[in-house]
Amino acid sequence: MSNEGSIFHWARDHRVHHKFSETHADPHNATRGFFFAHMGWLFVKKHPDVVKAGREIDLSDLFEDPVVMFQKKWDPYLSMYLCFIWPAQVAHYGWGENFWNALFVAGFLRYVLVLHNTWLVNSAAHLYGDHPYDTASYPAENSIVAFFSGGEGWHNWHHKYPYDYAASEFGGFAQYNPGKIIIDTLAFVGLAYNRKRATAAWEYGRARRDKDRAAGIPLPTVERRPWQQKSKDL
């Protein structure tokens, strides 16, 4: 319903983004500026390094997933219908709303808002915020982005521990993250499984950082532009 491309292509670009974050091989490289990371990358030809990385990244599990391949086969027709027509039909036949009003509000307007909420994760959450888990990376903890994206703004943690299904240290109600609550609910009824957390890895990493700090060893950092907020450390 978000109509942001097929699961296959979205997962491919996301894997490349994580492996080559803030390099020429990153599809939405934040070092090229806010607008490029936000939406500009969709309007220009991909950098050759992005294309090369996309061809070389392992996608075998996606090819073996029947749901992913079914959606890929019917993309973009199925996504276009579910994004625009279906919400309008629900409003029209469900409670008598004018079909065209529903199409423009529940379809087009919702689509624009969802796109920008998603793009903020690539732009604002890579340029503004704190870096308590990895001071040497661009992705940041951004509570505003987390609010608008349903919990996806805790990006410093997410890039430090991409295998953590919660995408945040605390998740759930302790740290605004509806996404984790939804996954936990699905797990409760048997529709999600094999959830992995990185809290143990972080406790080990924090103890090692505290030891280095006590020894006077500085934390690694990356050079950021003056208008970006400086990193804060736990």
UniProtKB/TrEMBL annotation:
Its cofactor is Fe(2+). The keyword Isomerase does not apply. Pfam families: FA_desaturase. InterPro entries: Acyl-CoA_DS, FA_desaturase_dom. Residues 215-234 are annotated as: Disordered. GO terms for cellular component: endoplasmic reticulum membrane. It is found in: Membrane. One of its GO terms (molecular function) is stearoyl-CoA 9-desaturase activity. The keyword Lipid biosynthesis applies. It is a multi-pass membrane protein. One of its GO terms (biological process) is unsaturated fatty acid biosynthetic process. Residues 6-163 form the Fatty acid desaturase domain. The histidine box domains are involved in binding the catalytic metal ions. This is Delta(9)-fatty-acid desaturase fat. The lineage of its organism: Eukaryota, Sar, Stramenopiles, Ochrophyta, Bacillariophyta.
